[in-house]
Input
Amino acid sequence: MIAVIGSPGDYAIMKQVQQLKLAYHEDRIVLLDKDTVFRRLGETETLFMVGHGIADSGDFRDVASGTMLEWLQDKDRGVPRVFGGIVLLSCYSGQQKIQNEPSLAGLLARELSGHAAPGTAVSGANGY
Output
């Protein structure tokens, strides 16, 4: 699944979506928002989350990390227990930006513990 947040006219975002569709042509593209149904992810399917990142924190520009966690943990629409992992395609989402705080990828991995199967991979970009 390719979940996208941002303007459909944004070249940087649409370029990432295009490249993902070329590599994962069977994956569906959905809007990343409060109504996204992650529960439909297959057992080996990766969740690609595409949007702009905030350089100072590594969070997505258009959604706070706490809100994103709520969406992913939602009892009806959140991620299933077994799926192929999460790849965050936003600048700095894999890089620890605040001392003594995990990166966005690290935060999601930690907070999804108990919701997703142990060892479910979560990764993000270390730069732009």
About this structure: The longest strand covers residues 47-50. Helices lie at 11-23, 65-73, 104-111. The chain is about 25% helix and 15% strand.
